[in-house]
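Friendly challenge for the regulars: who can give me the structure tokens for this chain first? No prize, just bragging rights.
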Amino acid sequence: MNATLRRYWPTALLALALATIVAMNIRPYGWNITAVFHMDHVIHDAHAMPKDFVVLGVPAYDGAQYYQIARNIPIVFQPSKWNELRNTSPVSYAYQRFLLPLAAYMLSLGQEETLPWAFVLINIAALLLTATVVLRWNKGHPLTALALALSPTAMVAIHFTLAEPLTLLLITVSLLRIDKTKKIDAVTIALLSLLVWAREVNILFILFLIGYFLFKKHWRHAIVLLIPVGSFLLLHSLIYAIFGDIPFLISTGAHQFPGQAAYDVLVGHRGYDRYTLSSVALLLGFVLPALLWTGREILKTRSLDLLPFGAFAFLCLMLIMPDYIWGSITSIGRVITPVYPLTLLALCKHRTFSAKLLTLSILLLGIGTGIGLMLQIHPFTLA
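First reply, four minutes later:
Bragging rights claimed.
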């Protein structure tokens, strides 16, 4: 019993921290749980939110669209009603993040009264499970588990009710299974097939794995990874059938000359405010040090181990993100979510002073992000 408590105390601490964060986020809005969606009048006027739903006086964030997608689930699977989804918010782009709304709809049994709680519980459970599997992995270090579950991407997602906690869970479990078994088994394929429904950019993680195993001449692993690609195409075929467009093409255009946007925000070409300074903190506290650390590990070992090489690749991907992504940690801190499990698991395997210091830096960046978002209070009305 004592051994169990010693191993899993970080999970208990994390549960308390996440519950506190959610409570502090909804406190300014009369403790109304619907505040977690950051709904605006545009979506509210188009769909009529339930009574006493918190509607902010600022533009909505992605979580508001996910909530409406969950309400639309019955229509999504009824082709005769697809016209009701067209020409109204949320548009096709938001449906690329279908997993969280679908899971929330299923957990709530389609009941609007419990739907907000379903979203919150899924995200909290995903982060708790992520921390737990890291603690079980090779006697994983508590600092790693907490840094992953309280990373900037997790804190932004908890505040705005986004899909990143599911992404963190699915990628972390997949990476740990690959690390343990040294193969891609059926469970891992199932997890990765769900992953591409969480966010459209997660297909890049699948493509990276395919490229990695092709390079390593593990032909079977590369071939079975085509199954998650098929899952991705299935979802996007459904989106195309409903809306008649391919929103993923918008995502593929989100790139810039490597390092240009990061440099611009660093030297103040866009001016300094709390948003740009948060991106500067992420750049100096995580991206650049992690690039140096993973690059050194690759050169030192002269081998392309999955974790450090994957972390290096996705860190480089962050550097080609455009200026509007680098404008705030709420964007650049979560857009390339796979970078966190890849980097933190690689750091955990070494546990040198530099690895621990970088892990601590990620944890502090996440905590700072969570606190900063808590302090933003918006005018609101009730539906």
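The mean pLDDT is 92. The chain is about 65% helix and 0% strand. Your move, everyone else.
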